[in-house]
């Protein structure tokens, strides 16, 4: 018993299977992430090391050269470059396509971790990151306020940024612009020389004094007491009264005697403006694999909530949206969805005119929702996203999905005209064209399937395109061999063979077809007649 016989003899089973496929497909379509392009992995890893105060030549000798020597023997390494700047070195490693970038990243972390003792003591912890084209800010927000720069930075850093960090699927929020408040210790060099002190001594003394240090615990039979020294500065006066040295043996030298201690703003290295007014920008990044459009919608809703909270707390600041990275995604997805919708409508109209029956159009048209929604199940199982490439594949496949069902339906209709019952016509008609339908589907798969395995960076973009066409064509073949014969067996009636063609748009189209056939026949006879006379 083949697939079509099972469908005809067990229609309830096929109907339940198709309904389940439609429900799962719709659910998968709603839950799939929406992005502009497929999730493509570039085999590039960067190592960033900061060494405050070092010149580019020092960064090259003391940092970059050591890191390059340790990483040059990594397997699959294609190229390695280093860029040395003031206080920062960036080493970029490019690997061959197909390399396991996650494993290589871990190897890089292990090797750089082993180098920590060879790097300068004052250098900061290396930052190792993979290059990801999707690792771009989803949104950029701006905060405007007439408040002091330091107060505004504190509001953004302590109130606004944590509220955005807590949004679902938000991975990181970076602040751009603004100046934070800092305590400056302006040391007088002459006073240092008079007291025979060095800057290193002063800095070390301030660092040692400002720590909370645990000193142990006291235990008895009933309780335990933990002791610690509280050295962290509570206010500016505590810092001014720090003893940096003892002059002779009886008098300590206070910090305020050799330096001026004041509260100020950090040195400004970057300025940011919005509509000509100073502002602080916040770049919002999504977590890996999260839905870009959904994250953007949540952030947009949070912006309204944050503005309401600022008003309630009487804070003269306002947060606004500067750039929404989901807008081009929405527009592209909407444009392709519109093309798919028009394609489906035109496809159904063309089928209706040529088959000349609403019932036959319905039977063949069922291949469209079945194949499209069924394809989403396989797409979700393979971890695809709804992006330009997958939607283009669906729009291209719309015209191909209904072909198999039309072939099956037309052959079944031919057997109905020969006098067979609907069930007999469905069984015999489907059996006759099964191999032809399978061959047609395999031809399309043979064209688009290899596109998914194109090597290189281009192949990573077209992988989801080719496989999406293959998935939908497989479902359309299943529909042609099950749903189409099953519906033809139980929905077809002898009345279909005796349609009235005197009136209506179908009759007009039938007359147009007949006229075109007659014209073609006359032209062919005239052409053959000329050929005979010339002989």
What can you see in these coordinates?
By secondary structure, the protein is an alpha+beta fold. It folds into four domains: 3-38 and 329-492, Up-down Bundle (Multidrug efflux transporter AcrB transmembrane fold); 44-130, Multidrug efflux transporter AcrB pore domain (Alpha-Beta Plaits, 2-Layer Sandwich); 139-180 and 268-324, Alpha-Beta Plaits; 182-213 and 227-265, Multidrug efflux transporter AcrB TolC docking domain, DN and DC subdomains. Helices cover 56% and strands 18% of the residues. Strands 5, 6, 13, 14 and 15 form a five-stranded antiparallel β-sheet that branches. It has a four-stranded antiparallel β-sheet with strand order 2-3-1-4. A two-stranded antiparallel sheet has the order 7-12. A hairpin with a 2-residue loop joins strand 2 (77-85) and strand 3 (88-95). The radius of gyration is 37 Å and the shape is elongated. It starts with a helix and ends with a helix. Residues 531-535 have low confidence and may be disordered.
| CATH overall fold name of the largest domain | Multidrug efflux transporter AcrB transmembrane fold
Q: Unreliable stretches, pLDDT < 50, 5 or more residues?
A: 531-535
User: How many individual β-strands?
Assistant: 15
Q: How many structural units, i.e. domains?
A: 4
Helix content range? 55-70%
The secondary-structure class comes to alpha+beta
3D shape: elongated
The average pLDDT is 83
* CATH superfamily caption of the largest domain: Multidrug efflux transporter AcrB transmembrane domain
Distance from first to last alpha carbon: 57 Å
Biggest sheet descriptor: 5 strands, antiparallel
What would you report as the Rg, rounded to the nearest angstrom?
37 Å
For the record, the CATH architecture of the largest domain stands as Up-down Bundle
What is the CATH C level class of the largest domain, in words?
Answer: Mainly Alpha
Strand content: 15-25%
Work out the helix count: 18
